[in-house]
Every structure is written in structure tokens, then in C-alpha cells.
Amino acid sequence: MPPATDLLALDATALSRRIAARDISCAELMRATLGRIEALNPKFNAIVSLRSSESLLADAGSCDEELARGQRRGWMHGFPIAVKDLVDARGLPTRSGSPATTSRPAATDALLVARMKGAGAIVIGKTNVPEFGLGSHTYNPLFGLTRNAYDPSRSAGGSSGGAAVALALRMLPVADGSDFGGSLRNPAAWNNVVGLRPSRGRVPAVLAQDTFFQQLGTEGPMGRSVEDVARLLCTLSGWDDRAPLSLADALPDADAPDPIGCAHGKRIGWLGPIWPDLPLEPGVLDLCQSSLRHFEALGCQVEPCTLDFARERNWSAWLRLRQLLTGGKLGSLYADPRTRALLKPEALWEIEQSHALTAAQLYHATVSRTALYHALRQLFERYDYLVAPSAQVFPFDAALNWPGSIDGVAMDTYHRWMEIVTPFTLAGLPVASMPVGFSAQGLPMGLQIAGPARADLSVLAIARAFEAATGWTRNHLPPVLRAVAVA
Fold first, then answer.
1. Is residue 413 domain-resident?
2. What pLDDT score does 485 carry?
3. Which of 16, 38, 399, 405 has the highest CB neighbour count under 10 A?
């Protein structure tokens, strides 16, 4: 057997093949994973609600017994997986980072959890989130603060912050996340891993309360390589009749030798900050712009472009629709004075803003959303992909709740500092966050690569070519791992 550090250094695709060949046992992988969590999680706090080692090793042993009988459930056979703490995993509580939730274990698995289990994964616990996933900074009163994998004094991003940190620190081979306001993109950028916000409907949203209107948030994959992200996307995707807006077009089998390939010689539109007056921390734009040379080395044509859509119209539409959805989801907690007292100020603000919304405002927000989609669609008549920074700031001081200003410009809401991700959210487009390097202070940043609607595999193909040209995740480990032979 290879040393534990070598096991954890493998990307998920290589790990899957080694397990299938029985070069690595599932029990060996589980012991290595639990050892890494024991060593690093007390400091970084990425994984919460961890199951007992005895039960997890028993599950891993069962996976090994299946392989010995010639039975393999799928490409994730024996993988330790921690599920984002906004979704249900049977036997574990879904706390959403809030004391207003119950500690009662979930009775069933969410669809994406069932699909990962069906591919062979072992759920070991949950990944930490901001309270109810609100804000791109992972802290909450139940489980505390998740710290950045590259600098523990800085924010891990969010809301998939625990997932991104667990990936970067090699606690997990792949991870699920979700994205409304950049939650698969911002934490991926800030922890030097890959995140993909899929096309609207690619990963079915099976929600008990709202089947038709909840169209801005989506679940999706994160990983340390584009190929790993593609395989997890294929696992999570596919029609489900409980989600009538889910996409029915088939993706490759997650176990396929190469589910995506590479793309070269494409037309790239560089959006820069998207709007000229959008504030960015000094260094972000220069770092992302310098990465464009890698596309040019791939034979791509890169040129600046402009989104013909007013910034305030975009923000107003996103803000009103978010308030509607968040206020509706959390409304019952607000209605009860006992649970209302437990909600954080940002949640209270969202709910109270939703109470003032009118039908006309919501209608005009959807009209604006449609117009934005067409403005982006027109850009895709000229370009194969659009690119922009994944975040407006580098990872900030973890002691802050959120950045109050960017480059001297005050932020008027708790999430305005992530405005750069909102057009792709509103349009429902597939968009990957790819690592582009580090600031002078050693803080990671990412680049959004967006494609037309339903072009998820095409986005992953160009992202894979970019990854091969840069190698940031592979070659630049978090400082806490650099003394360990994991690469």
C-alpha cells in the first residue's frame, strides 16, 4: 500500500482507478482521511457533524468486501464524502449553521446525496456553511468559523467554504456545493480549487416547498481537477420527474475514460470587471488579466468585450428575486418570535425586505432577468466563452463579517462585494471558477469561465485546457501541506 500522504495526494479520478484495481483499499483511504481530518480540522473547521471512526471504518470495510466479490457501485466506490450542511443526508442533522434549526437527524437523503451514494460514496459528515448559506464568508454560531486553506487568518469564502477548504487540504477527494451568489465560485477561487455552477436545471432541484420558482440557486460539483469536477457533474445530473424543470439531455457516464476532452482555438471575450464602475481590490484585475495569455497559448483569440446591460438593473433584479426566495424560505422562522431571535441580522434583513416587495417589482425583476439573458446570448454569438474575475476581493480578514468597502467604495449590502458573479446566476449559465494564481501576500484568486446555456461540458473542456497550461492546484499546495509529501 502507498503511504497515507500519497493516497490523499491523488486526484479523485486516479483514486477511483486505484481502488477499482484494488491497489488501494477503501479502509486504507478512510484511515488516511480520518487522520488528515484529525490533524487539520481543529484549526480549519471545514468538516462538521463527523460520524464516528468506528462506523466509517465499518462502511469502508463493507466497500472492500464488495470489491472482493467483484461488485463495484460506481466511480466513487469507497470515497469519503462530506455533504454541504444545507442538504439532507440520512442519519445526520441538517443544521444550516443556525441554532434555529433542529438537531434531529434527516430521515432521507437529498437527491444529490442519493446519487453520490449510488456511485459508491460514504457520507462521513457535513461541510460547514454560513448561517442558512447567506453570505460568502463561512461562519455561524453553531460550528464557528471555517478558515482559509492558504491563510487561516483569512476568510474561506462561502457558502461552500467548508467544502472548498476540505478539498484544498486533501480531506475529501471531491465535494458537492451550491451556488446562488457565487457559492461554488468564490470559495473555489479563494482556496485554489475548481468549482462549477452548472446550467439551470442540470442538477435537479427536488424541493418540498417550491418546484417551479426556485431557479437562481443550484447545486453543483467542486474538485481539485477539472476532470474530477466533470465526473461529479455527470453523477449529480440527469432528469428526475420530481423536478420538472430539470434537463433531460444525457451527459457521459461518470466512469467514462474521458468525459470532456479539451478545447483549443476558441474565441474568448474578456469582460474585465463587467461594468467600468464595479470596484475591485487592487491586484485582482491584473492577476486575472495576466492569465489570459494561457488562452492565447492554446490558440484562442482573446479580446475585450462589454456587457450591454446596466449594472443597477442587474443588481436590482438579483436583489429582489433573492429577497423573495430567501424571505419565503425563512418566513416561518421569522414568524415565530422564539426562532426569529436566533436569526442573524443578514437573514432578518432579507426577510424584512421581502415583506415590502410588490407584484409589479417582482414582475419587472423577471423582465430584467430575461433581458440580461438575451444581452449575454448576443455576446455568445461572437464569443465561445466569456471570462471575468471570480471575486472582487482577495480573501479578507476572517474576523470581519463581510467587507465594508472595496478600494474606498462602501458596500451598501452584506453581499454587494460579490456583485461580479450575479449576471451568470441570473442568466442560468454554466460557469466554472478556475485558479489563476496568488496575490503578493500569497492569497488565491480565480477566473470565471462562462459558456452559453447548457454548454456545461464545453465550459469544462476549455477549463481543462487552461488547467493543463497553468497547474495552479497541482503545483501550489496550502502552506500547511507543503512539508508533507502529498504531491
1. yes
2. 47
3. 16
Assigned domain for 487 exists? no
Domain harbouring 352, CATH code: 3.90.1300.10
Q: Is 23 within a domain?
A: yes
- Cell representation of residue 40: 487539520
Cβ-proximal residues to 402 (8 Å cutoff; 6+ apart), any chain = 135, 136, 137, 411, 414, 415, 417
pLDDT means per 10 residues, the chain with 487 residues, are 78 98 98 98 98 98 98 98 98 98 97 98 98 98 98 98 98 98 98 98 86 90 98 97 93 94 93 98 98 97 98 98 95 97 97 98 98 98 98 98 98 98 98 98 98 98 97 96 64
Element (H, E) at 275: none
Parent domain of 180: 4-481
Q: Is the peptide bond before 439 cis (omega within 30 degrees of 0)?
A: no
Q: In whole angstroms, give the CA distance from residue 99 to residue 349.
A: 18
What is the identity of the amino acid at 471?
G
Q: Which three cell numbers stand for residue 123?
A: 457520507
**Catalytic site residue from 16, 49, 84, 178:** 84
- Does residue 96 have an active-site annotation? no
Whether 486 is covered by a domain: the verdict is no
Q: Contact 425/214 with Cβ under 8 angstroms?
A: no
Cα of 404 vs its chain's centroid, Å: 24
Selected catalytic residue, list 25, 155, 159, 237: 159
pLDDT digits (tens, 9 = 90+) for 357-372: 999 999 999 999 999 9
pLDDT of residue 487: 38
126 is known as an active-site residue:
no
Establish whether 183 is a catalytic residue.
yes
Q: What's the confidence (pLDDT) of residue 250?
A: 87
Q: How many domains does the chain have?
A: 1
Contacts of 151 (CB under 8 A, 6+ apart): 395, 441, 442, 443, 479
Cα gap 142→83, rounded to integer Å: 17
- 116: Cβ–Cβ under 8 A, 6 or more apart, which residues? 76, 81, 83, 123, 176, 232, 235, 236
